[in-house]
Amino acid sequence: MNFNLDLVLAELADLAPTARYRHDSRLDLDRIEVFGPLSVPRAESLFVIDADSFAALDADFAEAGSFLVLGADAPPEGTEEACAPPALYVPAGDALPTPGEMLARLLDMRTRLDAWSEALLTAMARDAPLQEVFDLAAQRFANPLMLSDATLYFVLVAGKLPEELDDRLWTSAIATGACPIELCMEAWAAGSSDPCAQDRAFLMDNATGDGRSYLVRNLMCGEAYYGCFELVDVNAPFEPADFALVDYFGNLLSLVMPHQSRPQPAEGALGPLRDLLDGRSVRPQVLECALRKAGWRADDRFFVARFSAAEAAEDAGARGQTVRLVAEVYPLARFFDDGPAAFMVARDADYPLAALHARHAAREVDTGAEPRFRAGFSSLFADFSLVRTAADQATLAYDLVDDAEVGGAFGSTLSCFYDDCWFEDLRVRLGLDADAAWLLDHAAVALARADAEDGAAYVETALAYLEHGCNATRTAEALFIHRNTLAYRLKRIKALSGIDLESPAAGNVDLLRVFLSCKLLARPGRST
């Protein structure tokens, strides 16, 4: 393995050397020798030299070779010396090694670097898991490393992590599987003029405003981007040697990442569904054949979900990460890109929609967790030719996720189901944003007036009773009232309006009209 002066600087830290050269992460030295009468200028050589010999150097050496000067103080910083060669100065002192002793020490450093490099190359040659490769790499770094693939999905961590580590990026990343650069995209982008195309290590200095810095290295192969890895300075400050080792390791990883990165969920297995989602017609026989090849049947009940990350992402890699995270939870579903969001088509037999809706209604959220996804769910369908209609329903529900009336949540997902917001769809399609008094049932209006005058909840009670299939037990639970209280309200509703919800047939009550009227009257801002 080649080396450079930055690695020598780190190796000799106990001797307090001073650098007088331009730091560069490239490893361009392949030889170490003690300077002598037979030495010749050579750009890839490091010459170990005493102070007097360095002062008398031939001009030919100024442009060829690097120097480790023993027993000399470095010239003042900023001193302009014509054609001065790259040099590292070790001051005089009792512990100053002889040139021969220094050569032996540096050759030992070189041997250790070669052993580390060989271990990495051997592991890569036998297609070892990336985690194993990363564990080997971590042996040369004081700070821990983290790796994420091109879609910012999986995270590997190696090296010593302090037990008390409480890092806003790394701690949450390790806990959730989210890449740190996804959690701090602005700071990451500020670390380079073109962070996604940067093929050398770059520093995110004080990225989160708490004094902590991150050393980032993209993994590139040609023009393709396969991911990145980074170090966080929790154990030691970053040194120039870290940049050199990071770039060397990054060059090696770039060779294997194209073979180990996880592929995006494929759309090809159900290509006709892609055509239907895009509004193109598909012959029934073609659709049925594609479904059969995928192990689905034409009469399978299915639903469509439209989803994205909770925070909008402009970057295609970040959006792909969201698809990959969801695909991990729903491996039997099919996924289709939809620009800023994505569609998931899933069978009810694999992932019962009723169970998802029950969690949504119960708001089973992860305690203390920030929302990570937004999702809108369609109704159940039994005809795959209607997948575009289902996608439209999912899109409407997705757009209403933040509506307090119909939105909900489960896990770390903000959600909305079309079955809960179908009335909003109906209202828009019928143009009911204007006054809808002509549509309202007069008996329901009487209930709303009683609510306004008495501070009662008759409209809410009637609506809940109808929404829960006229089931008294479920209605009382939904309203958090006793069944006796519900029975009293139902009797008051009948007395005030003539609407007999308990025996609608006997009272000739049009339940659909009453229901729609109550839905309209229950909307915020609706006057009676």
Automatic annotation (TrEMBL):
SUPFAM superfamilies: Homeodomain-like (SSF46689). InterPro entries: CdaR-like_regulators, Homeodomain-like_sf, PucR_C-HTH_dom, PucR_C-HTH_sf. Residues 458-505 form the PucR C-terminal helix-turn-helix domain. It holds the Pfam family HTH_30. This is Helix-turn-helix domain-containing protein. It comes from Gordonibacter massiliensis (ex Traore et al. 2017). The lineage of its organism: Bacteria, Bacillati, Actinomycetota, Coriobacteriia, Eggerthellales.
